[in-house]
Amino acid sequence: MDNLLKLQNGSDIRGIAVEGVEGEQVNLTGDIANRIGQGFVAWLSKKTGKDASELRIGVGHDSRITADVMKEGVMAGMQAKGAAVYDCGLVSTPSMFMTIVFPETKFDGSIMITASHLPFNRNGLKFFDKDGGLEGTDIKEILTIAQDCEVVQCDKKAETFDSLSLYTKSMCEKIKSGVNAEDYEKPLAGLHVVVDAGNGAGGFFAERVLAELGADISGSQFLNPDGMFPNHIPNPENAKAMEAIKSAVLDNQADLGIIFDTDVDRMSAVLSDGSEVNRDAIIAMMAAIIAKDYPGGTIVTDSVTSDRLTRFLESIGMKQHRFKRGYKNVINESKRLNEEGIVSPLAIETSGHGALSENYFLDDGAYMAVKLLIAAALAKKEGKQLQSFIEDLEPEFESREHRMKLLCEDFKSYGQEVLKTFEQRAKEQGIYVVPNNYEGIRISFDSDEIKGWALLRLSLHDPLMPLNLEGLREGDCDKMEEIIRGLLTGLDQLEVF
Question: Other CB atoms closer than 10 Å to residue 306's CB: what's the count?
């Protein structure tokens, strides 16, 4: 029998769902989804203390070409075990968590069928219960149960449920109350906003939120769902994707551009002058927007943020807690800080994953867009632009990333040895090693010769060691690269850049 545990990807399940990419064999089918559905029912029944027949579970999906096959499989598996299953259709990932919260639904659990921004041949499943997205240990337990399940059939048809209407209504109400415009029902009147959904599931936001509230959405693009993603990768970290939304903003002379990933749990933006609000800038923007509500609050970020972001956050009275990469990592760390009495209103990655304490710590790209729109509308009332929130963020001069391959089978152990050697050699050479770094080794340079920083870390899942660098002046990255090559000399199982 297949080893389903290999499908675990942190706190998600991901696999190859259809042929079409040379050398990639299908390992996630409708039948496997059927078994995983059974595993989720067993896990949820145990956690809630409810019999399977008492469970109510929602299922949604993004625009992937294998969505229907996966959905039919997982729903049949859950129904065969006695659970009441609701087909929510094409939706966003965050909206599937909200089906547990909304009083009209109050599902016990929900599943989103998505593989985020990965290529067309991939698919996967994300799971939610009342505590939010499941943890990696939960996924392992579900797959372990599914491993022993046989495929089961169920002739019963799942009831359809329009959960997206509840979600978009909640978004609209949030904007109305946040702007409190004279024309309460049309708070975005006078704002021109373009949306790029990348042919994922986020096209709804343009018509059902922006246009509904009076915004001009002309110039919005790639709103139609198409799982072959013909225009660009639906990924706010992708340079081509960001160039596409930037062009749309400038060509249409829009006030703001919003770009989502496939399942709308991430977003980035472009301002009216073409400035990209992604990576450090999206963190700075969200922190600046909420700063007045959480004075002195701690923003939890991933490990690859720059020193300029730290300085900016401190300049607006906030603190930064730089943590590990992985959206669940930053979210859980922010939750932990709050439990300790440290106010942490935002957990956010440079990838565009952002979760606010006021929104169930749900990483929701549409909710971040809502916060951005409220700020834009209020700024416009005062004769200001959204740019004003981050005008004091120092410009980025140059950044680079090298993804170095580890050439041995036990790559995690070897990667740890690389990090130890890197740190030891850096200290021996008098290079400043940043203390209390939660992921990898970060070194910093602040002299007349070199100004900048570098982070060497081990990839969460792959045999790779990413190296991120940022220089403050021309030539700084070149100089740091030369020093780092020296620090990595002789490590023959690492393919140095």
Answer: 22
Give the orientation angle of helix 136-147 with respect to helix 30-48, to 10 degrees.
Answer: 120
Q: What residues form DSSP beta bridges with 497?
A: none
What is the average pLDDT across 484-491?
A: 98
- pLDDT for the residue numbered 1: 53
Would you say the pTM of this structure is higher than 0.85?
A: yes
Contact 248, 219 (CB under 8 A): yes
Query: What distance lies between CA 396 and its chain's CA centroid?
Result: 22
Using CA atoms, how far apart are residues 333 and 263, in angstroms rounded to an integer? 24
In the three-class reduction of DSSP (H, G, I as helix; E, B as strand; rest coil), residue 474 is classed as coil
DSSP output for 119-155? -TTEEEEEEEETTEEPPHHHHHHHHHHHHTPPP----
Q: 340 pLDDT band (50/70/90 cuts)?
A: very high
Q: CA distances (Å), 432 to each of 85, 175, 227, 418, in order?
A: 56, 46, 47, 18
> Is a pLDDT exceeding 80 seen at residue 461?
no
Q: CA of 9: how far to CAs of 26, 43, 188, 190, 467, in Å? A: 16, 18, 39, 43, 22
Q: Which stretches within 8-135 are classed as H helix?
A: 30-48, 67-80, 93-101
Q: Which of 408, 400, 399, 398 is nearest to 464 (CA)?
A: 408
H or E segment and range at residue 372: helix 365-381
Instruction: Give the pLDDT confidence of 28-67 residue by residue, as tens digits.
Output: 999 999 999 999 999 999 999 999 999 999 999 999 999 9
Q: Are 65 and 120 within 8 A, CB to CB?
A: yes
Burial 36-63 (b: 16+ CB within 10 A, else e): bbbbbbbbbbebeeeebeebbbbbbbbb
344 three-class SS: coil
Helix (H) or strand (E) holding 284: helix 280-290
Gap between the Cα atoms of 469 and 477, Å rounded:
7
